[in-house]
C-alpha cells in the first residue's frame, strides 16, 4: 500500500513538472518559410534579395531543391520560400538542425529576412505567418498598437528559447504626397481635374484605342515607360497642358512631401491587431515558452486598452492543455462506471483503477529517458490507451477471485492468491503482445516518425512498469478493500440491529 501511495504521488508530480508540447516536431523532408523585406523596399530589390536566399539554401548539401516567390497578401515586401530536403539517409541531419545551420547565413544578408520552419503533417490553428507560433495583441485604438507593437517585439526577442521572432506590423511604408499650389495653377490655366488627368495618363493605364482584326480585338493601353515610374523623380519629366496652350513642368506648381503610412492594418475579428510570430529554440518546450511570454506581458505592463492572447497553433495548444485533466478524469470515470456495472460493486472498480497510476509513472519515465521528450497530445493519447491495456491485468485477477469467492466459497486471501497463480501467464502474454506491438512505433525511424514515436514510447514504458507494480500491489489492494467492505457490512448490520432493539415507545 505504501508503494501504491508513492506511485500516485509520483504520478502527480511528474505530470506537473513534465515539459509540455502540442504535437511532436516532425522532419517531413520539407522546409518552408516567409520572407520579409524592409517596408520601403522596391519589388525589384526584393527579387534580388530573394534570389540570394535561394542560392544560399541551395548551396547546403542537405537541400535537394529550393524555390521562392515575391508578393502575396497584398504586399510587395514579402514572399514565400519552399525547399525540399534530400532523404534522411543522405543528409544525416534533421530539418531543425538544417534550419539552425542556415539561419546565421541567411540573417547575415542585409535587406530582407527569411524565417524558416519545418513542414508538419499536422498543423492546427489555421493561422499562416512567418513562424510556427503566434501571439497577438488587439486594441480599439491603432495608436496604442503603433506604440506597443514594436516594444512587444523587442521584449520577445530578449526571451531565451524563442527564435525567428518577427511581426506582421507594417506601419512605416514610404508615402509621397504631391502638393500643388492652387493659386499658381489657376493663374496658369491649370485646373485640378486637368492635373488629375495628366497624372493618370502618365502613371495609370489608360485605354486609348482598340485594334480590330478578323478573329480578335486588342486593347491599346498607354502608360509611362517603367524607368519613369520607379522613382518619384519621374515626376520631373511630367508636363501639364494649360487651357491657354503650351506645356508647363509639373515641378513649377507642385512639390513632394514624403511621409510614412501603414502598408496594411491587420485585423483579428473586428479589431486592429498586431501578431508576433516565433519558433522554438532547441530543447525548449512549448509550455515553457508560453509561460515566459505571459510573465513578460505582466512585466512590461501593457495598458488595459490592449488585450493580448495566443493565436493559431499556440491557442489550440492552450485550449488542449486546459481540457487535458478533464479528459483523463472523464476516461477514468467512464472505466469506473462500466466496471461497477460489470462486477456489481462500488469497491472493486477502484482496485482495478489503482493499476492506472503505475502505467502513468511508466509512461512519463519513458518520455524522460527518451531524451526528456515533451508530454504532447500524441503522448496523452498513448496514456489513454494504457488505461484500457493495463487495467486488463487487474481484471483478469479480480474476475477470477470474485468467482472463487462467490461460487467456490473461498476466502478473499485464498481467492486472490489462486488468481495470481493462474492468471500470471495470460497477464504476461497479453502485456508482451501489446508491448511488442508498440515497440516499432517507439523505435521507428524515417520520414515523419517523430509524430508516432511518443505513442509507442508511452505504451512501452507504461506496460513495463505496470507489469511489475500491478502484480505487486493489486492483491494487497484487493484484500484491503475487501476488509473495508466486510467492516462496513458489519457496521451497517450492527446499526440496524441496534435500531430494532430500541423501538419508539419502549
* Count of domain modules: 3
CATH hierarchy: architecture of the largest domain: Up-down Bundle
Query: Helical residue percent?
Result: 40-55%
Poorly predicted runs of 5 or more residues: none
According to CATH, the fold-level topology of the largest domain is: Multidrug efflux transporter AcrB transmembrane fold
Number of helices: 15
Rg estimate, integer Å: 35 Å
Account of the protein in words:
By secondary structure, the chain is an alpha+beta fold. The protein folds into three domains: 192 residues, Multidrug efflux transporter AcrB transmembrane domain (Multidrug efflux transporter AcrB transmembrane fold, Up-down Bundle); 91 residues, Alpha-Beta Plaits (2-Layer Sandwich); 78 residues, Multidrug efflux transporter AcrB TolC docking domain, DN and DC subdomains, CATH 3.30.2090.10. Helices cover 54% and strands 18% of the residues. It contains 15 helices and 15 strands. The strands form five sheets. Strands 5, 6, 13, 14 and 15 form a five-stranded antiparallel sheet that branches. The protein has a four-stranded antiparallel sheet with strand order 2-3-1-4. β8 and β9 form a beta hairpin. It starts with a helix and ends in a 5-residue tail after the last helix.
Descriptive key words:
single chain, alpha+beta, Multidrug efflux transporter AcrB transmembrane fold, Alpha-Beta Plaits, Multidrug efflux transporter AcrB TolC docking domain, DN and DC subdomains, 3 domains, 5-stranded antiparallel sheet, 15 helices
Amino acid at each position: 500500500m505504501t508503494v501504491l501511495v508513492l506511485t500516485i504521488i509520483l504520478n502527480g508530480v511528474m505530470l506537473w513538472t513534465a515539459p509540455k508540447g502540442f504535437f511532436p516536431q516532425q522532419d517531413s523532408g520539407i522546409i518552408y518559410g516567409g520572407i520579409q523585406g524592409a517596408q520601403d523596399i522596391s519589388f525589384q530589390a526584393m527579387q534580388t534579395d530573394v534570389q540570394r536566399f535561394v542560392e544560399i539554401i541551395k548551396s547546403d548539401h542537405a537541400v535537394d531543391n529550393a524555390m521562392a516567390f515575391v508578393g502575396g497578401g497584398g504586399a510587395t515586401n514579402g514572399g514565400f520560400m519552399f525547399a525540399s530536403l534530400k532523404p534522411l539517409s543522405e543528409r544525416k541531419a534533421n530539418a531543425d538542425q538544417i534550419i539552425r545551420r542556415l539561419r546565421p547565413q541567411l540573417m547575415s544578408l542585409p535587406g530582407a529576412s527569411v524565417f524558416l520552419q519545418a513542414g508538419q503533417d499536422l498543423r492546427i490553428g489555421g493561422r499562416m505567418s512567418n513562424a510556427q507560433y503566434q501571439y497577438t495583441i488587439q486594441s480599439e485604438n491603432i495608436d496604442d498598437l503603433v506604440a506597443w507593437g514594436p516594444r512587444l517585439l523587442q521584449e520577445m526577442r530578449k526571451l531565451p528559447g524563442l527564435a525567428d521572432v518577427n511581426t506582421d506590423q507594417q506601419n512605416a511604408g514610404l508615402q509621397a504626397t504631391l502638393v500643388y499650389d492652387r493659386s499658381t495653377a489657376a493663374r496658369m490655366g491649370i485646373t485640378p481635374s486637368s492635373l488629375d488627368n495628366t497624372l493618370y495618363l502618365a502613371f495609370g493605364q489608360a485605354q486609348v484605342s482598340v485594334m480590330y482584326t478578323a478573329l480578335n480585338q486588342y486593347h491599346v493601353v498607354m502608360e509611362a515607360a517603367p524607368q519613369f515610374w520607379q522613382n518619384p523623380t519621374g515626376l520631373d519629366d511630367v508636363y501639364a497642358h494649360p487651357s491657354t496652350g503650351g506645356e508647363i513642368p509639373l515641378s513649377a506648381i507642385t512639390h513632394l512631401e514624403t511621409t510614412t503610412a501603414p502598408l496594411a492594418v491587420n485585423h483579428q475579428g473586428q479589431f486592429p491587431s498586431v501578431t508576433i510570430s516565433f519558433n522554438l529554440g532547441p530543447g525548449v518546450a512549448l509550455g515553457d515558452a508560453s509561460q515566459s511570454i505571459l510573465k513578460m506581458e505582466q512585466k512590461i505592463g501593457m495598458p488595459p486598452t490592449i488585450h493580448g492572447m495566443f493565436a493559431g497553433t499556440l491557442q489550440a495548444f492552450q485550449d488542449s492543455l486546459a481540457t487535458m485533466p478533464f479528459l483523463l478524469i472523464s476516461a477514468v470515470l467512464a472505466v469506473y462506471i462500466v466496471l461497477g456495472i460489470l462486477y456489481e460493486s462500488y469497491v472493486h472498480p477502484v482496485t482495478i483503477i489503482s493499476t492506472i497510476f503505475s502505467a502513468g509513472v511508466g509512461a512519463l519515465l519513458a518520455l524522460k529517458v527518451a531524451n526528456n521528450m515533451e508530454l504532447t497530445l500524441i503522448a496523452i493519447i498513448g496514456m489513454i490507451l494504457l488505461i484500457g491495456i493495463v487495467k486488463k491485468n487487474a481484471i483478469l485477477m479480480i474476475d477470477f477471485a470474485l468467482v472463487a469467492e462467490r461460487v467456490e466459497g473461498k476466502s478473499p486471501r485464498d481467492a486472490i492468491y489462486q488468481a495470481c497463480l493462474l492468471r500470471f501467464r495470460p497477464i504476461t502474454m497479453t502485456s508482451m503482445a501489446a508491448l511488442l506491438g508498440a515497440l516499432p512505433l517507439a523505435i521507428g525511424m524515417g520520414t515523419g516518425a517523430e509524430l508516432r514515436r511518443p505513442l509507442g514510447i508511452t505504451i512501452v514504458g507504461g506496460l513495463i512498469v505496470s507489469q511489475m507494480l500491478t502484480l505487486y500491489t493489486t492483491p494487497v489492494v484487493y484484500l484491503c478493500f475487501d476488509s473495508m467492505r466486510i467492516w462496513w457490512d458489519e457496521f451497517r448490520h450492527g446499526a440496524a440491529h441496534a435500531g430494532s432493539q430500541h423501538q419508539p415507545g419502549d
